[in-house]
Write a structure and sequence with these properties.
The radius of gyration is 26 Å and the shape is elongated. The chain is built from nine helices and 16 strands. The N terminus is likely disordered. The chain has about 350 residues and is an alpha+beta fold.
Length: about 350
């Protein structure tokens, strides 16, 4: 027996089937768009411990649909740099993504200058924000910060669209690494991470079709997109995986390393090489004089209060021995700290070099 036709039931079944079909066919959820360019010399430079400064990021994201209302929730999760909450909204976006990139690069072969030291040096030179972010000035900035290269960033998207039964959120980041000695662009990547919620963003069911777009605009979505964009860009630059967790904010760091020499020219037996450093307090710090002398201890000599976190001065020295002879020895300082059962370390290179003995004479 054929059941009687009931228009209401048929209509509801048709609508439900249409919604399910649309969700199935058009589902896109998250997507990534990447444009990448890298100089062939970059892997070699990375392997040599290329030292970079990450200058404050620009924010060129369109004003229309800018997700400033979700910044608070995202910032809580991503931990803005101290003092970032007092910055204008766009500057906060730049600092948020800059901190993310620096955190991911802390796991790479690059030697990344602490942002506190970078910002202090930039402020000392009195450059404007536009001058700091101008890649054509990279040689000048690199010389001032004693780095090999300068990394520039631009938050090109931090936006949303909302169309009744669909929402989209988008975070985009562009990075460019410019060599400090030649002014040549060594690397550039642009990553756009997007996520959709609603009919075209994944299965929702008929009743939730109107509420899912709102969920897609929550801070957690932006958090995930921001992490994906910053991590992906860092992987592009690092040439390999950087793990799944950023380097902890309290990992030991050195703000700067300096070397005091008794005179110009090659050092001889009895001369002293003094190494000074400023960084996280209560850590084990040592320095290497090339491969000639390794793990020369440095002692904590003083602590300094600072609104951005307490810092300590460290000092160590090496007395040149008879027979020491080498040219162009680099000086590396390493800081190690104990955090629970995990030992973390960061290595920093002084911008100059040391000549020892007659073999170094010119």
């Amino acid at each position: 027996m054929i059941p009687a036709f009931r228009p209401g039931v048929a209509l509801r079944s048709l609508v439900s089937a249409s919604v399910a079909l649309a969700a199935f066919v058009l589902a896109s959820c998250a997507s990534s768009d990447v444009e990448l360019r890298a100089d062939p010399a970059l892997p070699r430079l990375r392997a040599q411990g290329y030292r970079i400064a990450v200058v404050p990021f620009a924010v060129s994201a369109p004003e229309e649909g800018l997700l400033t209302d979700a910044l608070g929730a995202v910032g809580d999760v991503l931990s803005l740099e101290a003092g970032g909450g007092g910055l204008p909204m766009r500057a906060r976006l730049g600092e948020l993504m800059r901190a993310q990139v620096i955190g991911w690069l802390g796991r790479s072969d690059f030697e990344v200058v602490e942002p506190w030291a970078t910002d202090t040096a930039l402020a000392h030179h009195g450059w404007s924000a536009a001058e700091e972010r101008d890649p054509s000035r990279a040689p000048e900035v690199a010389a001032a910060l004693q780095v090999d290269g300068v990394l520039y960033g631009d938050v090109v998207a931090w936006n949303r669209g909302y169309y009744v039964v669909e929402s989209t959120a988008e975070v985009g980041l562009r990075l460019e690494l410019v060599d400090g000695s030649t002014g040549r662009s060594l690397f550039e990547t642009t990553r756009i991470e997007s996520d959709a919620a609603g009919l075209t963003g994944g299965p929702t069911g008929f009743v939730s079709a109107g509420t899912e777009p709102i969920a897609g605009l929550r801070g957690s979505t932006l958090r995930d997109l921001a992490r994906a964009a910053s991590r992906g860009a860092a992987i592009d630059l690092a040439g390999g995986d950087v793990g799944t967790d950023e380097r902890p904010a309290d990992a030991p760091r050195l703000s700067f390393v300096s070397v005091a020499l008794p005179h110009s020219g090659p050092l001889v037996a009895g001369d002293r090489v003094d190494v000074l450093a400023l960084g996280a307090p209560g850590c084990n710090v040592c320095f290497d004089l090339g491969v000639l002398r390794r793990d020369v201890p440095m002692l904590e000599t003083a602590r300094h209060a600072d609104p951005r976190g307490e810092r300590a001065s460290y000092a160590g020295h090496y007395v040149v021995q008879a027979g020491d002879a080498a040219r162009g020895l680099p000086v590396f300082a390493t800081i190690r700290g104990q955090r629970e059962s995990r030992v973390s370390a960061s290595r920093y290179r002084w911008g100059g070099s040391v000549d020892l003995g007659a073999a170094a004479a010119r």
